[in-house]
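Dear U.,

For the methods section draft, I wanted the exact inputs and outputs in one place so we can describe them consistently. I've listed the two proteins in the order they'll appear in the manuscript figures. Please don't edit the token lines directly; just add comments below if something needs changing.

First protein:
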Amino acid sequence: MKRIFLLLAAALFSFAVAAALQTAELKAPPSSAKLVALGKQIYTQQCAACHGPKGRGDGEAAYLLYPKPRNLVAANFRLISTWDGVPTDEDLFNTITRGMPGSAMPSWGHLPVEQRWALVYYVKSLSEKPLTVRAPKQPAADGSGGEGIVRVPPAPPYNEAARARALELYKDACASCHGATAKGDGTQEQVDTEGYPTRPRDLTLGVFKGNPDPASLYRRIVAGIPGTPMPTSDWAYGDDAWHLVNFVRSLSGDTQRARVEMKKFEIVATRVKELPDHPDSGMWRATLPVNLHLMPLWWRSDRPEEVTVRALHDGKEIALLLVWGDETNDHTAMRPQDFRDAVAAQFSLTPNPPFFAMGENGKPINIWMWKSERQADLEPAFQDLEKLYPNLGIDSYPNLLRSPLEQPSRHALTLESNKTFVTGWGAGNIVSDPERKSPAEDLTAQGFGTLRARPRIEQKIDARGIYSAASYRVMFRRTLAPTGKEAVALTPGATVPVAFAVWNGSAGDRDGKKSVTIWQDLKIAK
């Protein structure tokens, strides 16, 4: 009993500390030219790739993203706590801190409080209209005519009668969009005020762009979401709105809602005497797993939700284990309609990594990538193009190096003794090399469109992937010491920024269409 009491007291203390910290964060410092300048600096590094250099939602990554990045100049913000479509400073701060689950907007809660407030003031400076919050004015009895910040009344009890009322309200006003089962399968042909397609939220997934706490949901239900088909609810105010809030929250759990938020963690590479040589080795139990939320850049409900990461090193080499769920084993990309499954680990070569994508000019990143069809190529029952296309017509070339027992001409792709007829191989393309021993590729990039393989002599990453029970387990191994100037250096005692990406072939993922994490900290234990 004493132990339970102590645990409860510790939990309450932690909750109180967290609440106090959040309250302290929301105390905005006064705006100043210095803070706006700091905000511009952070915006240029972390935000411009999506929102554009001038905030018009036209960044170089915008074409990869759905929903589209917000046009900060037009200032049509979604997550607000007012009746009249104007965000408070706290609204902007909370959105920057938490991000927008269900979109490509990650959490920036790991940034210092001052930097987040600096971003608030810089974002406000981009607006073409004044963001002035009106004095509070309570709405009429039917919920219409309100101004300023929405006042949230005390919540009534949520009992069987309240739930019955909520079901009635939901059926009458919400089901046409969100669907009878709340899975977002109602009206699909919708667009926002900027003409981009939008879809009703699947409320059972626990993916809320805004904070899912009761007060925030209350405000979104009664005041709507500006710029979207979600209207102001003059039909639901007071107790009725609270009943809907409680009903919507009952469709998902706190753990489920928390899991979709993209947060920064520390991944510790534990030091051991011997590294595992297989993804299913029991040696991986020597280090703690870290579950990271994956965010599809082009949002979809059917997605890989998490990737679990473990790391070990022996003072000479490091091993990473990446595990994620996938219902299909897509291990061929020979037909034009087929796409492979894949996973990658991305390392920043600088302590302050650029954005979460592909590096930037002068700030290269190092990528270790595993592809399922490269793994299949190394298996005994390797992939054969002629199995997929049995009537394939091929070009034949003379093979001057053939044995007297061989046929006088052979398919170009079987000329492993002569690079003359396999031009990619002859040019040093690692993808065309039939002698490669690893399904991993060592890549580098300095911004969008700059991805390239590192020299063949420096391709020293070993990898092995296993698929079973609807999941992948992929292991990477490499020396701690870098192989060349564009490879990441991993030193015991150091912390290196790392991020991860997963491609689901059956969903058509390829290139920039993928699910990603934000930057994490990889700590190499001494």
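Second protein (the one for the lower panel):
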Amino acid sequence: MFRFIECATKACKGIIPLHLLNWMIDMKQDIRVRFAPSPTGPLHIGGVRTALYNYLFAKKHQGTFVLRIEDTDQIRSIDEAESHILNSLEWLGLSADESVLNPGNFGPYRQSERKKLYRHHVDQLLKSGHAYYAFDSPEDLENMRMHEKEAGNYTPKYDQRIRLKMKNSLTLPVDEVNRLLEKGENVTVRLKIPENETITFSDRIRGEVSFKSSELDDKIILKADGMPTYHLANVVDDKTMRISHVIRGEEWLSSTAHHVLLYRAFSWEDHQPDYAHLPLILKPTGKGKLSKRDGAKFGFPVFPLEWYDQKEEEQYAGFKEAGFLPAALLNFMVLLGWNPGNDEEIFDIDRMIELFDLDQINKSGAQFNYNKAKWFNEQYIQSMDSEVIYDLIRSDFPTGDQSFVLKIIDMLKPRTTFLNDFKSQSEPLFYPPASYDKHMLKKKYKHEHKEDFQHIATMIRAASPDRDDIEKAVKRYIVDGELKFGAILPVLRIFLTGSMSGPDLFEMISLIGNSNSADRIEEGIAFSSHIAVNG
């Protein structure tokens, strides 16, 4: 059900849907959105969805999609992580209009290169009284937390009450403040949260959201190393980069009150962006946020590309290496929290752009269903031209004979989930079995049928290479001999491939070749006779 508001113009009588009003507002301004990952680790699948939603919204409104690298945490930032982010977005096809690789007019696009800008704005806040210097050492802060817990406050925070008990420019004499600033140790700058206020803002997904200032702490906005924290940097950057909409994860919702106060402190209320906080992506169980550990636990990737964690000395698989198509992954991801308002499930990127609407994003978390992701990949593979698939995986085959490989792809497509499956499932077409499924052979192979298999091998060797002719000849022999299909065909499959699984039996014979297929059947007969005698 849509929410409605009264139309304020004489030209409009009655009411208009809020989602239409939002669309009208969006169309009146230059749409600029940003995806702003921190390069402290690889790009998580949750970040992919955030990037995708920002990209779709920008393209829907002929806007600009900005990629900003938020590397203010210099201790935890990793060069390889930034490369992983950039390479992942490139593989997914989510190209930024402005980025470190494609600068526009609002750079630099790496926060570590914008320090002077942040310092300038911090000085403004200090001068206006909306921020203050803090000189507390780590020991001072730990003692504060310990005393607060002893007094029964089990969630201590540096707030309007605590600030007056700490070592900062609000409690110390001016000459002591100057001395400590000159000394330069443990100098941070904190945002001064006003007392007894309610901070309210509108969220495109959650409606009106309010926080009491008594619930907020005096966040550090400039660290002792001279780098800003996320709270200051993202506000300054969003303003100076003219960001119109901030579309980000639900985990940042509780910080938005601080950001609203920063806009107010800078007198930037007219430049405050529209907010849209996305629901969490949940574990397959539906309980808790999906993490990288869940991939190892449940057996699926959580990163677009593989990632080696040097600290943990552990390799994490990526969706690309698992054999996913980027378009299929995006199709799966777009539906984790958004629905198109109809029964469609398969969308190419142009259709996503056409249908995407912030007002159709759900508030509740979206459960990660890996089987559904696999289903999408199957649909995309099955609908692709074999020539396109060949161009993607040609190096997986031990032959450059394109026409032969295309026949293999055509045969395997209907039963393929991952791109990697083409290589593994086609190996029996190039190489005879290195081993046989002994358990199934003992179960299926009957020694009294040895001569039947020998006759079938001879018949195949002399038959036409046409798949249908081979099938007719083999099945006619089975019927004429009053044999059972279940006693012959599964064993032929094991002789040809080593196992019971695989594509169409007669198409395999046609592709392997009559002579090679007959050789394999004869080798299988010899092996089966041996284990029948020797066990």
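Candidate sentences for the figure legend, describing the second protein: The domain at 115-222 is CATH 3.90.800.10 (Glutamyl-tRNA Synthetase; domain 3). DSSP finds 22 helices and 15 strands in the chain.

Thanks,
Y.
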